[in-house]
Design goal:
transmembrane, pyridoxal phosphate, alpha/beta, 10 strands, 4-stranded parallel beta sheet, single chain, Rossmann fold, about 45% helix
Length: about 325
Amino acid sequence: MCSSFKERGARYAMVMLTPEQKRKGVVAASLGNHAQAVAYHGFLLGIPVTVVMPIIAPIMKVQKCREYNANVIMEGKNMAEAKKLAISLSRKNEWTYINGYDHPQIIAGQGTVGLEILEQVEDVDAVVVPTGGGGLLAGVAVAVKTLNPSIKIIGVESERCASYANAIKNGKPISTAIEGTLADGLAVPMIGYNAWETSKHLVDKMVTVKEEWIAVAILRLIENEKCVVEGAGACGLAAILAGQLDEFKGKRVVLLLTGGNMDTTILGRCLERGLAADGRLVKCKVTVSDRPGGISELCKLIGSIGVSIKDVIHERAWVASDVFSVEN
């Protein structure tokens, strides 16, 4: 129902609450997927839910939370500010705060992904896990390595929110500057301490991918698999397309497509970015005559080599040449 793996941990954490905690309610901070999961299962279990979402959260995810009767508070420029308010509200109102990636029961619930992989897929060589706060990575790593230590666990994150890579570099979770990223679900400024301590000795490799490869991965999944996957979920494929996991060529590798909650206002831009990164959408600047037929001749020339024109933008005011020319 929530189109992401976050349901697993949210359900388990909420089922394990005491009757008194269920009566008082829970609060969570999230960019969207965890908020949706807590709101949905709170609705099913009859538990009052408040979610704090930063103002950059996709409107689609905000609306879904409201549809599940959650009290939605839009506050904070980023996850760190939203989390701070959520913790403050939990103390003030005696609500249970459910961390979306570092709560022990959240990590345990996410780990069921690893169990299902081993039940359903034979001879797995590696599992590639998109990594934000680290909860999914930790849960999957424990489940998989416990049952089959030979399987490699690979974490993947965007270079614009490389919290786990920075934790590895510094030997501990450390606050990381977050830039705008297509993988908004991974935009967590610091890996959770529980997730870090659980996973640090089990992860075989951590890869950071460039934004253009995430866009190409989203494009490939739509074109080839007819599957809409949000940027966070496409990071594993992005790493493969970028050649960052070439050591696994010919191996059986499981990619976790962790969510499909792609904001429709962003999807079009992602596809265009993917086409551009793939060399299938190009931009050129030419100067032609501004007299009748000038643009027509240009279009005929481009069409003669089998190229489709997406947009033509005329610029007259800032052209450095004569007034009888136009820049396109």
